[in-house]
Amino acid sequence: MIALLPGAALLLALRIRSLLLIAALVPTASVAILLIVATVAAPAGVSFSPGLVVTVVVALLLVGAVRLWRSGARWRVGLRRPTAPAVVGVFGVVAGTAVATRMWLRGLGGLDRIAQEHDMITHLLLVSYIERSGNAAPWQVRPLDLLTEGPVRFYPAGAHLAPALLAGTGVDPAASLNAMTVIYLAVCWVLSVAVLTAVAALRLCAGTSTAWLTAGTAAVLAPALYRPAVQLMHDGGIYSAAVALCLAPGLIAALLLASEERAGRTAVGLGAGAAGIVAVHPSAAVTVGISVIAWLAGDLVTRQGRTRLRRSVPVLLGAGGVGALLAAPVVLQGGESTGATGSFAVAPQGYPLGDSLGSAVALIYGGYLDPPRGIGLAGLTALYLFGVLVVVRAGAGLGVVAAWAVWVLVTASSMFAPGTGPLRLVTGLFYNSVPRIWSHVSLFVPTLAALGVVLTMLGVVHALRRRVRRPLPAPVRSRPVAAVAVLTAMAALLAVPVDRAVSTNTTTVAARYATPDFVRVGPDDLAAVDFLDGRVAPGERVLNSANDGSTYLYVAAGIPVVNSTTLGTGAMPYTYELLRSFDRYPDDPDLRRILQDLDVGWVYVDAEAPPIGAAGAPDGWTGSDMFTTPSGFAELDGKDLPGLTPAFRSGTVTVYRLDLGATEPPSP
C-alpha cells in the first residue's frame, strides 16, 4: 500500500478514468507524491514520516471523492459479465505476479535477510537515515557524515522513500527495504510489462480482447527474464537503477496513452509519473524518452499513428512541463553528477561486431553469473524474435519494434566500442555499464513474445472459423476458443521455459541473500552491534571501513561511523587517509588531530572483508585495483599501538577501544 496508494490517490483526485492509464501510472505517481511531500516538508522543518504522508494521501482521497460526487457520477450497482479473454488475461497477470513474488521471496530467504552485495550498503544506510532523521528532500540525501548530516553528496533516493516510511512504522530497515524490493521488482515489474503489452496490442488495432490476452501472456513471461532486476541486483546491488527500469514500461505505456483523456488532467498525471521515475534514478528520463520517441516514430508508418501523434504532442508537452517542475529539486541537486557518470571506466576493448549484435539480441545471461556469455534463454529468444516478425507482418505499426531495435543498437554499440562513438552520449548516462544498457532490450521482450503468441493463435482460430460456415454455439466461437488456446500456451510456458528460467533467477538472487557467495554483514557483525550499542558516547564516532559490516552499526543502532562509502570520498579526504594510514597515528600528529576532531573512540575491523574493485578510489590510495581490508587496519594486534586495546572479538571482527589521551607525542 505504501508503494502504490499515494499515486492511486493522486489519480483519483485528478479524475483519471482510464483503468489502463491508472495501472500504468500508479507506481511512479506514488513516488512523485512522496517526493513532493519530502520536498515541501524540508523547508518547513517538518520530518518526512508515515503520519505526514498518510495525511496527504487522505486529503487527496477526499478531494477525489468530492470531485466524483460533484460530477454526478455514481458507482454502478452491477458488474458487466467478464469476457473469456479478460478472464484469461487477468489470470495471466495474477499468475505472473505470483511467480515473480515467489521467486524473489525464495531468493531472499526471508524479508529479514541482509543483502550482501556492495551497493546495498548505501541503499540500507539511506533507508535508515531517512527513517531516523526525517530528512528526505533531494538536497538532504545522502550526507557523508552521519553525525553532522553534511556535506551532502546527491544520491537518487526516490526508491528509498517507501521503505523508509515502512521502517518508520517499526519494521526493521532491512526488512522494509526487502519488502519494497519485492513490490517494485516483482509486482510492479509484471504489472508494468502487462500494461505496456496491452497498449502495444491496442495500437496495433488488435482490439480489447487481444489486449487482455497479450497482457496476460507477457505477465507470465516477465519473471523469466534475467534483466533488468536479477542481474543488476546480483552483479552490484544496483537497486535504484533496477527499480527505475522495472517501472519504465508502465510509464512508457502511460505516455503512449497521452491522447486518451482530457489534456489537462492527463498532463498532470503523466508529469507526476515522469517526476517519480526521475526521482528513482535520473537516467530513467533517457530510458523513457528514447523509448517513447522511437515508438512514436515507428508508428508513423500508419495513418492512425500519425493522428495519435498529433493528438498526443500537446499533452506530452504539458506533461514535460509538469514533470520538469516537480523533478526540479532532483535535477538541480543531481546536475553536478551528470559529468561524472560518463567518466566511469569502460572495458579496455570491445567484442567483435557480430558477437556484440548477437549478444544484444539474444537473452544471454552474461555478467558475474556467466562471464563467458555462454548460456541463456534460447527458447524465449526464438519466441520473441518470432514476435518481431509477426508485428512487422501485421503492418499496423512498428512502434514496439522500433523501440526494441533502438536499444539493441545502443547495447551492441556499448559492447563493440565501449565509451566511444556517437552513442557514448547515451551510454555515458548509464555509467557506460553494459548490464544497465543491456537491460533496456529486455523491457520489450515480453511484449514482443506475447504479441507473437497471441496474434498467431488468433490467426489460426480465425482461419479455422472461416472454414466452418454454419453458426456455432457461444462456447466454441472465436473469442472463447482463442482464449482457451492462449490459456493453454500460458500453461505450457509456465511449465517449461518460465519455470526453468525462474529457477535460475531464484538461485541467482539467493547468492546475494539466502545463501550468499560471500558475507559482508554476518553474525559476527551483529554481535559487534550488540556490544557497541549503549557504549558509544553521544558525539563519538566509530572508525570503520564501509566495505565490511560496520555500517550496520548505524542501521541497527544509530551509531555514527566515519565511513559510509566503501573507498572513502574525495569530498572528505580524511575518510581514506584514515583507512590508508590509521596505524601510523602514534607518529603522525595530523592523524591524531583528525581522530580527535572526529572524536573517534572505537575502531571496527573485519580481517576478511569481501573483495571489491578499487579502480575509482580517490587519489588511488588503495594501490591496487582490488580492495578488502584497508592497509591502515591490517594486523593491529601485533603493532602494540598506544591507546588501542581490543574490547570485543567475534570471528574475524574485532572492536578496539581508542584512547587518544594515552598517546604521548613522540619525543623530539
TrEMBL record:
Question: Origin, by domain of life?
Answer: Bacteria
- Name the InterPro entries on file: DUF6541 (IPR046671)
Keywords of this protein's UniProt record, alphabetized? Membrane, Transmembrane, Transmembrane helix
Q: Which residues cross the membrane?
A: 33-63, 84-105, 182-202, 209-226, 238-258, 315-332, 374-392, 399-417, 437-461, 481-498
Q: What is this protein called?
A: DUF6541 family protein
What organism, scientifically named, is this protein from?
Answer: Pseudonocardia nematodicida
- Source lineage: Bacteria, Bacillati, Actinomycetota, Actinomycetes, Pseudonocardiales
